[in-house]
Structures are given as C-alpha cells and as structure tokens.
Sequence to fold (1028 residues):
Amino acid sequence: MSAPAGTGRAAFGPVSRAVIVVILGAAALLAVGPLLWLVSTSVKDRGDVFSVPPEIIPADPTLDNYAYVWNQADVQQYFANSLIVSAGTVLLNVSAAALLGFALGRFRFKGRRLLFLLGLGTMVVPFPAIMLPLFVATKEMGLTDNLLGIIVPTAALNLWLSVYILREAFGGLPDELEEAAVIDGCSPPRLLFRVMLPLVKAPLATSAILVFTLTWSDFLWPLVIMRDHTRFTISVGLQYFMSTLTSNWHHIAAIAVIASLPVVVIFLVLQRYFFSDVLAGSAKG
Amino acid sequence: MAQARRAEPAPVRAAGRAWREVRDTRWGWLLAVPAVGLIGGFVLYPALNTLLFSFTDFNGLTPASWVGTRQYQALVSDSVFHRTLLNSGVITVAVTVLLVCLPLPVAYWIHRGIPFRRFFRTVLYLPVVVPIIVSSVAWKWMLDDNGLLNHGLTALGLIDEPISWLSDPGWAIWSVIGVIVWRAFGIYLLIYLAGLATTPGELFEAASIDGAGHVRTFFSVVVPQLRGSIVLSSVIAFVAAMRTFDEIYVLTGGGPVNASKNTAYHIWETAFSYFKFGYGSAMAVVLLALVLGLVMLGLRLAGRRR
Amino acid sequence: MDPIQPTRRRLLTGGALALVAGLVSACGVFGGTGGGPDSAGGSGPVSLEFWTINLKEGYTPYIEGAIRRYEQDHPGVTVKWVDIPDFEQTQSKLLAAISGGATPDVVNMTPFILPKFAATNTIYPIDELAPDPAAVAAEYTPGLWDAGVIGGKAYAIPFYGSVSALIYNTELFREAGLDPDKPPADWDEVFAAAKRIHAETGVSGFVQTLDDFNDAGNPSDILAGQAGAPLLSPDGKTAAFATPEAVAHLEQYAAGVKDGWIERTSVNGGVMDGAKVLAQEKTAMVFLGPWILRWLEDNTEPETFEKFRVAAHPEGAGGAANGFLQQFAIPRASKNPKQALDFARYFSTTTLELAKQAPVLPALTATAKDPYFQSSPETKVLVEQEVKFYWPKHPAVAELFTALRTEFQAALLGRKTAKAALDDAAREWNRILSAGQ
Fold:
C-alpha cells in the first residue's frame, strides 16, 4: 500500500504531527484498553481477573486456556457454523442488494421511490417486535434445523443497509459509462456484471464487512431459531462460558479472542479494497 | 465510494426515451425480485403480524382476543413508555452525531499522512471485531465504581470521587452511548477513509497552493467531498442507534429507575419477559410510525434544500 | 390443539384488518401444531427433547452420562438434549418454540416464569400425568416442591436449588476488629458490622444487588425475607409489603448506599457484579448461594481466595433463607408427556452427581440426606438452612419485580424516601394485579 494519491510529503508540520499522534495515541489506548485486558486475561493461568489496576503483562503466560476452550465439545463446530453463517449471509445479502441497488441507482421505473422508502422503513423495525412472528414464519419454511434459518432472515434484516450503499454507488457512476455501453448494444445484465460491478468494489466491500460484522456478533436470533446446539454460532456458544455457575474469565477471554480473529482477518483482507490507489478516481461522480 | 450525487438515473436522452422506459420497468422489477422476496418474507410479513398483535391481547402462549385500540389507549398514559421514547431519542441523536462527526478529522489526519497511520487505522477498528456481548461485559467492569476507568481518572487527578457510571441515573445513558460509540467508531472511520481514497489528491494540492490551512481544507475540500459518505454514515448510525439493545441488555438492564431504557429494550421486556405481546407490538407500531414520520420529514427538508 | 386458531377467526371479524388477517392466515403464520394430551405413553420408539439452562459448559459429562443411563434402562426411548446458555433467553426461546409448535418435552424452568405457563395452561399439572401425585410430592423437600404449586396444583418437578448464604472476607473482618469466627447472625448485626468495616477499612460492608433473575439480593428478599413484610395480601390481590418494618429496613439500605457502607453497585448491578466487588476485596460481605465459591476460586488468586468463608444467611424476620430453584415442567405440546414426567423425575435423582461438582441443593429428601452434604461448610449451609421462596406465585411476577426494583433504585439513590418508594411500588403492584392477564 503506498501513500494516498496526491498527499504532500509534509501535509502536517512537526508540531501538528506530534499533537495528532498524541490524540490518536490516546484514542488508540481507549480503543484497545479493554481488549488488552481480554488478551492478557486469556493467557493467565488462574486468578487475578479483577485487580485494579490489572496486570497487563502476565509473569507467566500460558496458552492452556486456548487449548481448553478450543477442545471443548462443539467449539470448533460453533466456529465453523459462524463462518458459514456469516459468509452465507454476506453472499445472499450483498447479491440481492447489488441487483436491487443497480436497478434503483440506474433505472427509472414506476414504484421505485415507494420501494426504497418501504425498505428503509424495514431498517428501523426494532427486532424484538418481530421476533416471534419471524420465528413462526421461519419455522413454517422448515428452516429451524439448518443454518439457512439464521442466514436468510439475517440477510433480510440487514438488506437495506447494503441496498442503500449500493444504490448510492451505482447511482454515482458516470452516465457516459452507461451510454457507451448502451450504444454498444449491451444488455442490462452485461452492463451490470461486465461494466459496473467491477467499479463498485469499494462499496461492495463496505457492505460485506458491515454485514459480516453484524452477523458475526448476533446472538439472540441464532439462539432462538436453532433447535440443536451443534448449529449454534460462536456468539451463542461463548455464552456457555459466561454462565453463572462456571464463568471462568480466563476461558471467556480466550474464546472471545478466538471469536474475534476471523473478523480481524476479514478486515485485513478486505481493507485493500478500501485504501488501494487503484480505486482512486474510478468511482467518481 | 459513492459521491455527492443523488441516486437518480442518468438523464434520459430523447432518442432512447421510449425504449428506456420499457427496459427500466421490466428490468427494474426483475432485479428487485430477490430483495423484495427477502424483505417481504422475513421483515414485512412478520411486521404485519406485529401490527395485528397490537390490536389483540396476545400473550405469546394462548389464543388472543381482539381488543381494538385498547393497547394504544394504554400507551397514552404509560409514563415508562414515554420515558423510553425520550431515551431512544437521546441515544439516537447522541450516537448519530458522535459517530458521524468524531471519525471525520481522524480520517482526514490518517489520509493526509501522519506517522503510524496504518497502525492507527487498524487499532481503531479493533473494537468492532470483538463480540458485543463480551466487550460489553468487559466495559461493565471497567465502568464499575471500583473499576479501571475510575481508577485511571483518579490517578490522573481528574476526579476525586469515583463516578457511578452505571448506577447514577444521570450517567447511565451516557455510559451506554459511550460504549456504543467506542465499539462502532472504526466502522465510520472506515467509511470515511474509503470515501477519501476516491478523492483526487489534486484537490488537496490545489487547496494547499491556494494557501488554505488545514481547517479550511477540511471544511472546503474534505466535508464536501465526503458528503455521500456522511449521509451514508448518518443513515447507518441512525438505524443502528434506534435498534440499540445489546449494550443496554448487558450494561444497565435499562436502569437505574429506567434512566437508560430505550424503546427497543422495553419492547423486548414487555413481550418476552412480561408476556404482553399485544402491548409490546403496539409500542413497536408507535415507535415505527414516529421514526418513519421523522425520516419522511427529514427527507422532505433535505429535498427542499437542494 | 391449535392454540392460535381461534385468534384467526376472531381477527377475521375485525373488519378493517380482515384483508391483512386473510393474507397472514393464508400464508400459515398462525398455524401452530402440537401433540395431543392422549398420545401419552404407548409403545414404539419415543423421542424426548430435554432442555436445561446453562449446564453445558463443565457439566456435559454428567448430563450425557445421566441421559445414557436412562436410555439404557428404557429401551426405545431416546433423549435429545438442548442446553440454553442464559436464563432470560430460555424464556424467549420457549415462547418462540410454543408459538411455532416446536416445544420440548421436558423443560428446565424457574419459579420466575412457571406461573405464567401454569396460568395459560401451556404446561401439564403433575396430577394429570401421575396416578398418585401425592406420592410424587412426598419424595421432595416440601419447600422446594411447594415452589411449583400454583393454585393448589403442582406444575413442576424440582431439579436442584440453592440457598442464600453469607460469603465474607475474613481478612477485612479482622482489619475492622470483628471476629471472623462470629459472622453477623441477623440484619441488625449485618448493618452494624458493615458500618464498622466501612469506618475502619474504607471499603463497603456488603453488596446486595437488586438484580431479579438470581437467587439472592432481590428486592422481594429484602422485604419479605429480611424485613418480614408479606408481599401480597392473603387473597393475593393487593400488595402488602409497605409495612413500617419494611420502610425502616429500606431506610437502612438507603442510608448505607448514601454513606458508603453498602456498595453502590447494589443499585444497578447484577449478581455477578456483586461477586466481582467481593473478588476485588472492595466489599466484605455478599449474600449468595455457596456456588459462588467455585467462581471465586477460578477468578481470584489463591491467597485471596483463602480469605473467603461461608456462613449461614443472617436471620431475617421472614424466618428462612431466600432460595432459588430449577424445575422441570412438561409442556402441553409434548407428544409423550407421561414418559417426559418419568424422565424428569429420574433426572432429579441424579443431582448428587451435580452437587459434587458445584454446591447445589438437591430436591429429593433422600439425596439431601447424603453424607456428602455434611462434608464441607458450603454444602452444610445448603441442607441445614430452612429455605423459602420469597416470590409471588403470580403470572405477572416479572412485571411486579421490575416495578419493585425501579422503586428500590429510586429509594437507594435518595430520589424518594423509603416510604414513598414502597407506597409507589405498592400502587404499581395493585395496578398490575388488578389488570388481570
């Protein structure tokens, strides 16, 4: 990754730089403080969870807690379920949203405003209000016994987030692009897949990472809808470790770290779509 | 990233008008099928049931009776419900404003190049990745009277007495807001950085040649360039803040004395803890009507300005 | 048995919404299915779905072993075990399951939600399934059995319970000049000790959280167990707790929070927040079931853990220690309710094995007599204390408790006098109680 396009070598003077670094340093400390505590708790062998101030660097670090939780029955299964569920949800959500976002952004058709507003309305429906009927509907479709029971409703509940992002993205592409394609006799699917989709990679990545994050940490719906605990996701599964009778914080911390890693990886992988210079200027309006 | 441009289709040239209309309508709805199916089956359809429930005394377990508008009448004088609406408003406004504004200068700094920029970019995103349920419990302990935050503030000499972040009615809602902002900050930073990545560098050079300082560059280049991203952030933050549930569930349970209870949490409590689905559904309908009314108003005002 | 069917018909007469209702019913959202009550027993393979709360982590070998033994003794019966991680979520999951007609056969409940299911007739009374219910009842500790008796009928088989005890920090007692071998025995002594500890050491005397889903520290125990005020009038129709004794007792709490000898976390914390303050040695006493010792052992340094000791719960005017209970209920939708009851009764006989892993109180009288419970202080306090459940057996119990907790918070924060808070709480209770449901 190179420096952002057009950034002067010395955008900030030395004093400003120092001030900014101090401010961001404080922000970074606030951001990772609780996480450092988690990580350090996860490598301690016993005790000392709540002392103030905490001992951040343990004298005698150990990976036993990781071994313990990873080898607990079903934890690997939860982890795999979460990956499948999150990936499936992102795929379904972003595909459906890309099609509609393309239509809303490029085509002028009757009912599109109403459709868009109706969809926007669905975004503010508080989840507890529809949970019970949603359960019944999902069950009627026979989805309580497989991961689709999490994937499909979750993709639907967060659909408009992606639709919104992608409508803006497609709408923001230069008109000349479309005109040129139309003159070439390009059909709408061709226009979408060949011409426009490659130009909205950044918004696609934004939607994907948003939906992935939301799905990954969701715990109420996966718990309610799945009958069989071998189909629970990691956010549900880690609550087993947080139970009153057994909550050992070394184990909770270890499983929390395990549960966070995939999102870190996804972020590191996808971030090049956000920041790479290739994109600069391509999605311009 | 989408730029400051309304999502209207390309201007229709007279030549292709008729052809385009046919094409647009046919393809528009065809492309909408998967999305409409998902939303219809898994959101609108359950929501219609919720609308139905709101006119019944449904308890989640046994046959319900039609009670007309009784639930709505009861809401008129329910002071806890009113309080939760107010709290929802406070949380939504505060979270939206903070999450839309705070990451802007940070994105600008990181984009324009400061030492350790990649480090900061990654570290500030980290809170997003930890499961909410875990980070909220960690925060619950940080915010305790004997917790790390009070310890740190006392050590720095900023406070004399520990602050009861979670058990003081004045602070509780702000603690919830703080944890939400802490967690989601990275998402908005990311959106802005993505927006800036598509901003031509010449704009900054031009501003610099004009002798514009950072403050002026920020307001004359960054903010207008990021208008699309800012609108997007506002929408996402608004929606997420309205739905706030997990943080309240873990941190305060809505207390003390309902000081941090929002309507979404109250609906959950009413339906799933009190078994009053009819009443909870009526709350949801009222909340939804209020929000949609506000959104429409906002869109109309925004439309008029253009 | 289609619980929601009549709704649909009534809704269809609803005029303006008939169209919507038609749409909804046409798509079958209201269509629940359930087993009939007469399909009980019978031959052929039987499959039971069994829900527990929060026992998977750490107790899987116990549960699975017990299930395997049952299956071996009952050829043709298979048991599918589902463990729900969290008490509150059990309720959501169960409600969803019942609406969707996908209920378990044996479900772990608590006295907190049982009354609602009993009042709506969605679970079986035991007498419909057992030929001699009195004989079943006789096997269990009366206090634990009675917690499941609602309106004269038993609806639950007790599984395991817990009794509130005093867990305290001997080191802080010593520092305050108190004798660690003589922990406070009643509430006057608790308050006096707490004041002294705060004055001498600077930390708070005790924490008593107002959280409502756990076995200790809830407002009803403060009123009924500690101050001896009855929660409800004898006919169960009005609140009766706003007595002068209760007001005086709550005034002590308010003063304690204000002056610092009661931990402020009490106001809006949950049980585990209280336990955490004890673990940090920032408070000297907590009133919880002895199971918390296991948690303390896991999460504190060994030298800290050694300072904690368990004693009998201080005696209150209510005359018995506050208890908490896990029960089994049989949903109406079970296809094999008799087999389910048999399994539930069997499972309650296995609690000795559970108790050996975590100090919990078995429900069967015979098990409680096992010498194991005399083997350590934390098991002794379980079986030697008298237990009561200071919870109103009312379908709206959750709502009643929220109202009580909210008013308690106002009193502890000094926003209302103790009297005003209790009067307001009583008014709110009367409103909820008269609203029916």
